[in-house]
Amino acid sequence: MHARVLRYLDEVVRRGSIRQAAVHLHVAPTAINRQILDLEAELGAPLFERIQRRLVLTPLGEMVVAHARQTLREHEALRARIADIRHARRGVVTVAVTAGLAGAWMPSLVHDFRQRHPGIAVRVADLPVESILRAVEEGDADIGLGYDLPDLPALRIVAGSHWQIGAVVAPGHPLAGQVSVQLAECAGYPLLLPAPSLSIRALIDGAFAAAALEVVPGVESTSIELLQRLAAAGSGVALLNPLDVREARAHGGVVYVPLRDAGLPRQTLRLVTRARGVASPAAQLMAEAMAAAMAVLER
């Protein structure tokens, strides 16, 4: 049954007459009467009895009105849920990020986002770069965030920022007091390097090669957190970017000293979504929050 006739029927029962219902609904009495007559014809029986100029429900009418009111309540609840989703008061957003970013940057970002949008559930998956791309392409994640993500037709780049690689050392390390350092200076200490499977390692290896330096890492790891902890403990010099060690620097656990070697490329952090389709309001809000935070961090 159409929502309009349900509202008409409910109001006639509440007001006791078609005329009073028409006044309340701001429609012509004939329009309400026609809708009810059509409904009665469809059901094959009258919904009302006319007793002393007042409409009284028949047993069938009572059944239909009970159904109509339940339907109208469910309809209003549905409209409220849709409004919640449209205005992003409710929803779920899934973000796929590299493990280093999940530990270094996402905690504060997710906390701030949830403070502003407590009705939106946030799911964070730490994945390798290839898995991030696949998760976003296939719809398993709404947003992807990682370093040096390739240009792919299936992905849309929402935001990007560039990060300079530097030496990460303990506060008491000999390099900690310098404004900048060169790779040759870092090579004089045990090196704590990201594993070859990470994109930053290719940039570091290329820089060492350009400087004609042959080095043997003291430690290699896919865990950025492990490298920064070793650096904080004085085990050597980690080569990372400032975003990787943002939390540790804020607490004074490590010192970041930028590298000044000529031609050393920066890491490119990219925020991506699917190129096709419409993102949910929750995903749009998260993408906007992450893009804004990236812009602030790069300043």
TrEMBL record:
In this chain the HTH lysR-type domain maps to 1-58
User: Which terms are listed as keywords in the entry?
Assistant: DNA-binding, Transcription, Transcription regulation
What is a GO molecular function of this protein?
DNA binding
One GO cellular component, as annotated: cytosol
Alphabetical list of Gene3D superfamilies matching this protein: 3.40.190.290, Winged helix-like DNA-binding domain superfamily/Winged helix DNA-binding domain (1.10.10.10)
What family is reported? Belongs to the LysR transcriptional regulatory family.
Q: What is this protein called?
A: LysR family transcriptional regulator
Q: Lineage, please? A: Bacteria, Pseudomonadati, Pseudomonadota, Betaproteobacteria, Burkholderiales
